[in-house]
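Hi team,

As requested, here is the filled-out complex form for the zinc ion run. I kept the field names the same as last time so the parser does not choke. Let me know if anything looks off before we queue the next batch.

— J.
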Amino acid sequence: MTLIEIAFFVVSAYVGVLSAKMAADKFGVVGGIVGFFLGFGTAICFWLALGKLLSLWHIWRPLRPICRNGKCNAKDYEIIKVSAKETIWVCKCGDKYVRKGRAFMSLNEDENFEPYMIYTGLFCRWRPDK
Ligand SMILES: [Zn+2]
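And here is what came back:
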């Protein structure tokens, strides 16, 4: 379990305890137990739905644009090098790319960056970087 997953679990358990307390006041011990699982389950479902909603966002603007050859989508890239400065991806065609901020650049054979795609506004999609 990652730190963020533990945090979501703790918040969900807290929601479960709160709903258990409210249900226990009205329906006693059995109500408290049922209330805990209802609150906990509702919180978990909320986080899962939120995650699905956020992944829908990537249909609008994928994490990485289609490659220069027009063949590879965001999920077709593999990370080949990670450093503090940059992350280098390679698409299935074998071309290398680097993402820096909002720019996605191709890395040519001389190890130089060439502008490729960029997005500007918060809701803008990838467009050619000139
Ligand atoms: Zn490709």
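Two things worth flagging: The chain has a mean pLDDT of 92. Residues 67, 69, 71-72, 91-93, 95 surround zinc ion (CB under 6 Å).

Thanks,
J.
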